[in-house]
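My current task is to audit a protein record that another person submitted. I need someone to confirm that the token line plausibly describes how this chain folds. Take the sequence as given and treat only the tokens as open to question. This is what I was given:
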Amino acid sequence: MLRALMALTGSALATPCASCETALVLSVDVSGSIDAGDYIFQTEGIAAALADPTVAEALVKDEVALAVVQWSGTEDQALVMDWQQMLSPQDVADFAARALALPRAFNASDTAVGEGLRFAIAQFAAVPDCRRKVIDVSGDGQENAGFSDAKARGEAIKAGIIINAIAIEEQGPASPITNYYQHWVITPDGFVFTAHGLQDYAETLRLKLQRELVKPIG
């Protein structure tokens, strides 16, 4: 199935990654709580965030390597877009276009956050020369299968990998998913941004990528 997904998404065209500043995995929840409309919000959100001029400029400036993972249950993880370095504005535009057209890897399964993280961690073996390694995980639920989130976080810390998160919350004042990611998922040097509904996902991802990639002045 993964081979078929790679063919559909054009991953076979990905360029090998030479030395780079940052290797970044976008790790996307496609568990059963994500319906067809929600999934479209996520693919459109990735494409829109990458198209932001500030984000695109930062990606090219540091020759960032990007990959996309989709995850769901304990046995459901896939590298749906293989590593590619952003060496030109056209590379960013092409990656965004492919992200927009991504087929969904899994349907109607559990939320195995830890197993999704461990799969994302394993992908960095392909980009050993990138100085900084970051996982951007997004999800709308707490772990309900596998129960390995704390172990996965420990493995990331040991490997020097940063885990940041987008917590997708229902509308309202409560923030259980944000609290979950803060306490169980992100690494000590990581952070959580909150999207209030998937309609807010694109803007939240744009702001998070800016924080991760754009160096502050002064």
